[in-house]
Amino acid sequence: MASFPTSLRGVLEQIPKAAIDSLEEIRIRENRPLEISYGSRPAFVKLDGSLTEDYRVAYVPGRDECRAMLEKITNHSIYAVEEELRRGYITIAGGHRIGLAGRVVLEKGQVAHLRDIAGFNVRIARARPGFGAQVLPGLLDEREQTIGHTLIVSAPQQGKTTLIRDLARCISSGEWHHPAAALWRGRKVGIVDERSEIAACEKGIPSFDLGPRCDVLDACPKAEGMMMMVRSLSPEVIVVDEIGRAEDAIAINEAIHAGVKVLATAHAATLADVFARPVLAQLAAEGAFASYVLLTRRGGKVAHRVVSARQAMLEGASRSGFKTATTTRPRDAPEARGAEGAGHA
């Protein structure tokens, strides 16, 4: 709440507790109604904090409030967060990402920065201990007694970051949630936290519990960070969020061939979407991942489905029209292990 101007904070602090407890997003748009998202549903906010579906009676933040908001989240120095502004977001203490809307300034055809910022989307970061417990047993590499290479996919705001955060904690702590893994030790986990959301570091120290054997490269580009991890921090598992660029694929393959397990997320609503994205499709065709986890929001719960690499190729490639001459068996997928599964978190 300290990131909001006084007048706006006064409205938000009156929101019903049930909505606060399940709050996901706060959307502030200059001269437009204040909106929140909670428990997978949207609502507009009135002056007294009560919720409504009628935008015409909602509280409307003005220019002064939006300017004050920008000053607060940048600590009165826009130049200090110039790189984040170029990417369209600012991450504040606690790992909360604030998306920004405004006028884009281009230099040589590339986004240089944003100006005239008049929209903010505050995405609330939450730790969900136990979220990974239902998913992790289907991702294990029993031969090497660790997690297999895994890609978690979903549309935005389905829980990918929350899930990998808890999976990192489980792996680091040795909480494998499977009878066969009762004696397995925890693994050294390296998190490349490009957007400062997974660990929510403050002065290099994670705000979230990531277990006892975890190192974080905060605000570091993914591809470069993965190579830095491999060269200097000897991780056994590398965790990265939202892959999709060609350089990400190169770094993932380098990490895999260096004997490091990779746990990553990507935006894709279905397996067909995975194979429709060239970089992800190529990684899949090369057998980079042993398992895929698909997350979907159903009401107030997140449903998950674990799919083996072979099934993903059959299901996703055929539906997307992706063509490949050969299907490479994943490097760490035991033939006998059942990788299909479903559940709720």
TrEMBL record:
UniProt keyword annotation of Zinc-finger present: no
InterPro entries, sorted: P-loop_NTPase (IPR027417), Spore_III_AA (IPR014217), Spore_III_AA_AAA+_ATPase (IPR045735)
Domain of life: Bacteria
Keywords annotated in UniProt: ATP-binding, Nucleotide-binding
Molecular function as annotated in GO: ATP binding
Record-annotated Stage III sporulation protein AA AAA+ ATPase domain positions: 7-300
Gene3D superfamilies noted in UniProt: P-loop containing nucleotide triphosphate hydrolases
SUPFAM superfamilies assigned to the protein according to its UniProt record, in alphabetical order: P-loop containing nucleoside triphosphate hydrolases
Region (Disordered): 318-345
Positions with biased composition (Basic and acidic residues): 329-338
ATP-binding as UniProt keyword: yes
NCBIfam families the UniProt entry points to: spore_III_AA
Protein name as catalogued: Stage III sporulation protein AA
Protein source organism: Candidatus Cohnella colombiensis
Organism classification: Bacteria, Bacillati, Bacillota, Bacilli, Bacillales
